[in-house]
């Protein structure tokens, strides 16, 4: 979007004339003349410079409680995108920054005495004090009133048209109006300290130290010809075990230098009133209140491991200045500012959280092959991907692929994977998706076409929807079943088609029971709403309705538990005769077996409730009954909800233990989903948002996993597989959008091979169709005047 801030009149670029006094603020205009900025960090200073440059008549004051050169940290990294915005908005600031920037391309990952280097990344950094000096100079040139060692008056909203609260993560402005801004602050699990070295690293350096107390990591990058930022980070427990909690600042700095002596070339570290702290993620429900608006860390924070704090603050300033120029009222301008920035910030915070949690869980990855470990680190935030890294550094990416076992020219997603006696030709799974289109539980022509099309679309494994083990175990009247011979024969028709017309594609069945979430309308008629007529009684682990208007289930008796266990076993026998290659037991999403696993839905006081071990008892009994009748050479998987996204529910730690329990009973892989267990859940949606749970289970236990959850691109699949975060990727909506998603992924990557075989009748379409040219002929010759 082209911003007004870009087109500043030339006459406004020089030193500003003295601004007139405006005793009465004009809150009804989006062109505020009296502006107060609380906080003299980069975001506040840059906002002051932009607003003054756009209108030299503005009276702008920056209030900063500390000295001009007081700062937290040493270096600042800015992206090319941010620098581009600065260049357009204020070339003088940009030129000053350019003169001081240190630039480099490489990232070094040092782990177990092995260094791997990846190039082509492009970084620019400078000292934080120098950045402040540049902004101080620019503000003074423009006539901004900078007041250091001065607390901001409490009545600024009354005396000024606009108050910009850029007062940092501990914002007193935000806290004073917490009832309006509604901040949510999450404290994370690592301690870190911000230090500096007196020499420049020649790359962005990540170094891992495995000490007797636990894992520690160094993040380092150059910011001046003779200096580097060094951040030392470790889990809270490691910090305590190493005794850092008992050391003063000087002793901590000396200890850190000793631990990372090789990386530091034996040089000492220096501090700047540095203290160990824990990172806090700040999110606010609102960013403005009347004529007060939050900016930078006061509004939001993002972990330093993706270098985004100053970047976000500067971009906030650019957007706020533009919105004030583009809208007629202050209210409209502040609303537009938040609407434009919030999704960008949310995306950055998701990436930052993924990066932060990767380092929190660093110990899980220490035994990965060295290059895979490096690739995993580089792609941890999901912003750098396999395809993106290939463009940056093809040699490094190809080396990782070779180590993984990819034949030349074969993307990771098209490598085979073995589960018991079944070898899948690629890593793509068509995820189970309820179609609600069966009649009396019998799958018909719709299912034949639906599953047959996706089988011919190239996926290694196609899964049915949840197939119910009894009539009472249906979710809706349209659910498919395997509780009659007629249903089994109908399924055999489908498996025969898949095996005959899509050779090499496996088809799996997912068995489940609705539990308390049954007897509801078809999804498109009202999801989770009870039927208006024809309801059937529900059963569950405990007599708790799913929603206030839902039917209350009966708590299952011992005798009923036995009956249901036998229903699952009988359905598994029918599934085997129907020709399915794999069977998955559905223990997720709040259905019957999931209801036993979660403490939020299992309130039993008998042998099937209470501790996690007891809550596992019935699902494991069902698993054993099914495994006993399911052919020994055919694999079984289990789908679980790895978190309930609700306080007091299943946690990620619980999920690891649940996975271990099923694997001990013979599960070949865990299909890791999340949520849908309680109606008041609060999932953290985002791209690939459920994959960290699969990652954790795989790397904590060594059990194969299937990752699910907003995985939408083949690039994501390649990245997850190659990083060792999952073994298989299950995609649902992408396969609704494109039944031939896998074959098209192969075509788009230029892959032809055994991992993606086009059906003979479709081979003529195995290349992307030609399109009309959209590019204009390029000039061949430019003549000077």
Structure description:
The protein is globular and about 85 Å long. It has 785 residues and is an alpha/beta fold. It has 26 helices and 29 strands. Residues 413-746 form the NADH:flavin oxidoreductase/NADH oxidase N-terminal domain.
In a few lines, what is going on in this structure?
The chain is built from 26 helices and 29 strands. Strands 5, 6, 10, 11, 12, 13, 14 and 15 form an eight-stranded mixed beta sheet that branches.
Q: Taking all residues together, what is the mean pLDDT?
A: 93
Structure summary, number of beta strands: 29
Q: Helical proportion?
A: 25-40%
Fraction in beta strands: 15-25%
Organism: Streptomyces coeruleorubidus
Domain FAD-binding: 161-349
InterPro entries: Aldolase_TIM (IPR013785), FAD-bd (IPR002938), FAD/NAD-bd_sf (IPR036188), OxRdtase_FMN_N (IPR001155), YqjM-like (IPR044152)
Protein name: Bifunctional salicylyl-CoA 5-hydroxylase/oxidoreductase
Label this structure with key terms.
single chain; 785 residues; alpha/beta; 8-stranded mixed beta sheet; 8-stranded parallel β-barrel; 26 helices; 35% helix; disordered N terminus; YqjM-like
Q: Topology, pairings included?
A:
Blueprint: E1 34-38, H1 42-54, E2 59-63, E3 75-78, H2 80-89, H3 91-100, E4 102-104, E5 107-111, E6 114-118, E7 123-127, H4 128-142, E8 145-147, H5 156-159, E9 162-165, H6 172-176, H7 178-181, E10 183-197, E11 204-211, E12 214-224, E13 227-235, H8 236-241, H9 249-259, E14 269-270, E15 277-284, E16 288-289, E17 292-294, H10 309-326, H11 330-360, H12 370-378, H13 386-392, H14 394-404, E18 417-419, E19 422-424, E20 428-430, H15 445-456, E21 461-468, H16 485-501, E22 506-512, H17 523-526, E23 539-540, E24 554-555, H18 558-578, E25 582-587, H19 592-597, H20 612-615, H21 617-629, E26 636-641, H22 652-664, E27 669-673, H23 691-701, E28 705-707, H24 714-722, E29 728-731, H25 733-737, H26 741-748
Parallel strand pairs: 1-2, 1-9, 2-8, 5-11, 9-17, 20-21, 20-29, 21-22, 22-25, 23-24, 25-26, 26-27, 27-28, 28-29
Antiparallel strand pairs: 3-7, 4-7, 5-6, 10-13, 10-14, 10-15, 11-12, 12-13, 16-17, 18-19
Helix pairs in contact: 1-4, 1-10, 2-3, 2-10, 3-4, 10-11, 13-14, 15-16, 16-18, 18-21, 22-23
């Amino acid at each position: 979007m082209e911003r007004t801030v870009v087109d500043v009149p030339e006459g406004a670029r020089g030193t500003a004339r003295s601004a007139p006094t405006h005793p009465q603020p004009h809150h009804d205009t989006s062109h505020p003349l009296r502006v107060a900025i609380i906080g003299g960090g980069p975001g506040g200073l840059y906002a002051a410079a932009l607003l003054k440059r756009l209108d030299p008549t503005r009276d702008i004051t920056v209030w900063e409680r500390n000295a001009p050169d007081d700062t937290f940290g040493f270096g600042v990294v800015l992206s090319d995108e941010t620098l581009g915005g600065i260049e357009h908005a204020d070339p003088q600031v940009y030129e000053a920054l350019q003169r001081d920037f240190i630039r480099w391309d490489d990232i070094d990952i040092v782990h177990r005495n092995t260094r791997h280097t990846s190039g082509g990344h492009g970084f620019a950094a400078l000292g934080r004090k120098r950045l402040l000096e540049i902004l101080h100079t620019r503000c003074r040139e423009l006539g901004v009133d900078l007041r250091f060692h001065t607390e901001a008056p409490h009545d600024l909203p009354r005396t000024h048209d606009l108050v910009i609260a850029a007062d940092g993560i501990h914002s007193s402005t935000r806290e004073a109006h917490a009832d309006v801004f509604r901040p949510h602050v999450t404290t994370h699990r690592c301690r870190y300290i911000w230090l500096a070295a007196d020499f420049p690293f020649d790359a962005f350096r990540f170094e891992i130290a495995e000490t007797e107390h636990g894992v520690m990591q160094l993040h380092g990058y150059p910011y001046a010809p003779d200096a580097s930022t060094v951040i030392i980070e470790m889990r809270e427990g490691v910090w305590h075990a190493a005794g850092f909690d008992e050391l003063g600042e000087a002793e901590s700095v000396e200890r850190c230098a000793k631990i990372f002596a090789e990386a530091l070339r034996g040089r000492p570290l220096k501090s700047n009133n540095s203290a160990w702290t824990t990172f806090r993620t700040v999110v606010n429900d609102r960013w403005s209140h009347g004529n007060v608006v939050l900016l930078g860390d006061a509004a939001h924070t993002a972990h330093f491991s993706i270098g985004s704090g100053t970047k976000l603050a500067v971009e906030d300033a650019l957007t706020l200045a533009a919105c004030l120029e583009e809208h007629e009222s202050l209210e409209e301008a502040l609303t537009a500012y938040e609407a434009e920035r919030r999704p960008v910030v949310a995306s950055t915070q998701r990436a930052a959280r993924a990066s932060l949690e990767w380092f929190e869980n660093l110990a899980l990855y220490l035994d990965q092959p060295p290059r895979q470990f490096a690739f995993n680190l580089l792609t941890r935030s999901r912003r750098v991907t396999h395809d993106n890294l290939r463009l940056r550094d093809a040699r490094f990416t190809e080396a990782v692929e070779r180590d993984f076992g990819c034949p030349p020219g074969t993307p990771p997603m098209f490598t085979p994977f073995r589960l018991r006696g079944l070898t899948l030709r690629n890593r793509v799974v068509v995820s189970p998706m309820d179609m609600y289109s069966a009649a009396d539980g019998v799958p018909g022509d719709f299912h034949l076409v639906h599953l047959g099309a996706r089988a011919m679309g190239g996926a290694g494994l196609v899964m049915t929807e949840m197939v119910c083990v009894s009539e009472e175990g249906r979710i809706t009247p349209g659910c498919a079943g395997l509780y009659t011979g007629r249903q089994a024969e109908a399924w055999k028709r489908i498996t025969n088609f898949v095996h005959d017309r899509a050779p090499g594609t496996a088809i799996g069945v997912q068995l489940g029971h609705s539990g308390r979430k049954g007897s509801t309308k078809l999804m498109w008629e009202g999801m989770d709403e009870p039927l208006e007529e024809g309801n059937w009684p529900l059963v569950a682990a405990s007599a708790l309705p799913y929603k206030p208007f839902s039917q209350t289930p009966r708590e299952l008796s011992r005798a009923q538990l036995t009956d249901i266990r036998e229903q699952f076993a009988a359905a598994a026998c029918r599934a085997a005769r129907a020709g399915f290659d794999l069977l998955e037991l559905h223990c997720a999403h709040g259905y019957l077996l999931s209801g036993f696993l979660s403490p939020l839905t299992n309130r039993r006081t008998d042998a099937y409730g209470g501790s996690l071990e007891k809550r596992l008892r019935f699902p494991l009994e069902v698993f054993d009954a099914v495994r006993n009748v399911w052919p020994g050479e055919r694999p079984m998987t289990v789908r679980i909800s790895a978190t309930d996204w609700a306080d007091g529910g299943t946690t990620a730690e619980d999920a690891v233990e649940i996975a271990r329990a099923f694997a001990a009973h013979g599960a070949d892989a865990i299909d890791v989903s999340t949520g849908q267990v309680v109606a008041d859940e609060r999932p953290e949606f985002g791209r690939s948002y459920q994959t960290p749970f699969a990652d954790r289970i795989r790397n904590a236990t060594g059990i194969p996993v299937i990752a699910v959850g907003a995985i939408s691109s083949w690039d994501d699949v390649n990245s997850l597989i190659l990083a060792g975060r999952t073994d298989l990727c299950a995609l649902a909506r992408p396969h609704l959008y494109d039944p031939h998603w896998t074959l098209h992924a192969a075509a788009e990557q230029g892959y032809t091979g055994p991992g993606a075989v086009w059906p003979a009748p479709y081979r003529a379409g195995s290349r992307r169709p030609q399109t009309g040219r959209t590019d204009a002929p390029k000039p061949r010759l430019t003549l000077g005047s």
